[in-house]
Amino acid sequence: MPSPSKAPVPDFSTDRHTSRQPQWINRFANLSGDFGCAVDPTPVPNPVWVARNTELLAQMGLPLDWLESSQALQAFSGNALLPGSQHWASVYSGHQFGQWAGQLGDGRALYLGELRTPTGSMELQLKGAGRTPFSRMGDGRAVLRSSIREYLCSQAMQGLGIPTTLALCLTGSPLSVIRETAETAAIVTRTAPSFIRFGHFEHFSSAPPHQGSSALKLLADFVIDHHLPESQSPGFCQNRYANLLHCVTQKTAALMAQWQAVGFCHGVMNTDNMSILGLTLDYGPFQFLDAFDPMHICNHSDHQGRYAYQRQPQVGYWNLFCLAQALMPLIEDQDLAVKVLETYKTSFAQAIDAAMLAKLGLSGVNPAGGKLYQPADISEEDRALQQDAWQLLAEDRVDYTLFWRRLSHAAASNNSQDPNWQSVQDLFIDRSAWQAWQLRYMNRISHEDSCDVSQRMLQANPKYTLRNHLAELAIQKAQNNDFSEVDRLHSLLQFPFDEHPEFESYAGLPPDWAASIEISCSS
Ligand code: AMP
Ligand code: MG
Question: How far is the CA of 274 from the centre of ligand 2 (A)?
């Protein structure tokens, strides 16, 4: 087995750095020893490339010819150290399934460091590169199956325009990893401006005051200064840390609205999986809805349905409440913190109204008054139209993605006998309920420019999402050393709003066996 060694790779830390090359800056790693500890990855035998996101690698200014080298493969498998990088794991705590879980931390992820890249600063983490001081009972490894899911889904979210951490590349190894059965290991390299979680704040807030309070302030100031300067200008109020909470509240509300609109279920919305930057973080038992079921539970370990699709916005609020409690030693004004949290309700409502109006192709011209309205001013008729659509979809368990996409095409015609309208109707069992809604909707969009409506909707309603069965087919091939389907899906999901006629079958109903795919926390 190769041991970690200095491979002849580009040294991004040298003076020869130019603005087009990335450079290690490692700001969080160097902030204070309180936030984690140095740890090297544990090598794996015989690593192979599974996938590389060449667009992202190029955007970050990483030399593509170097990525063809075996040194790059060794570095992104955890078998060699990149000069200038700083390997470490951070400590955090969190609430899991509604209960305080105490200390958790990066148990199977570790930082390579932070690069200043042509498109901004980016932290890099290896996920599955071996044990860290925070691994507790875990092996620090990830399996190929779950790593492919993270690699693909983070790209799918990016393609959909939803804030997310993003996988850079994926390597595999024949190393055996025991889950429900023996599987093989894989290592995802993932990127984000910051991987700081609500749980980081909870950790230092829960520590004894002499250990925690200065670290809590240092962490909050670091996030404000380096990642969320917009939280202070203009700011919600005069209180610096209430402004931070407000900014995270707005970002979380916006993220929840985007998840709901596209039918994404995260599966494990514990506070340690909530990004302080409002990014989708820690892909595990996630699922894009096939048939629309508001109470859909994608995580087979979630027996109470705490993280069911419909509950996600409420859980987002609950998690922000935990963050607010963690920030109380800095905010020092409970009434103010409550006032900040209250803004979630309006912000989420506005964001989901705006997202659903876009899905319905309604430009915001209020037919009653003819004025352009803000999302908050959505008319009662439009809100009812949107909520009744959800109700209809739920009653007939209609495929969520197909419905919106077919509706987008149908909206180009004002003839209900048009084949595109028929194809929407075909999704429903209760035809008369559908036709009643269709009549109201066609009447409503007749106030809009019909050509525009359809075009706008095709940009709001993706044709392709990473349905569970599509990921599963890519995984099965990859488990037989054929990684072509991972690449194919990755390319497709970069542009999920485009037609890609050659991929028509990827946009169809899931096969019957998809219902038996079981995804749990260990995924
Ligand atoms: P998750 O449910 O994946 O968000 O993980 C919760 C906590 O368990 C985090 O501290 C993870 O780092 C840790 N963890 C999960 N899986 C493993 C593993 N295989 N080895 C070590 N730590 C793990
Ligand atoms: Mg996690």
Answer: 9
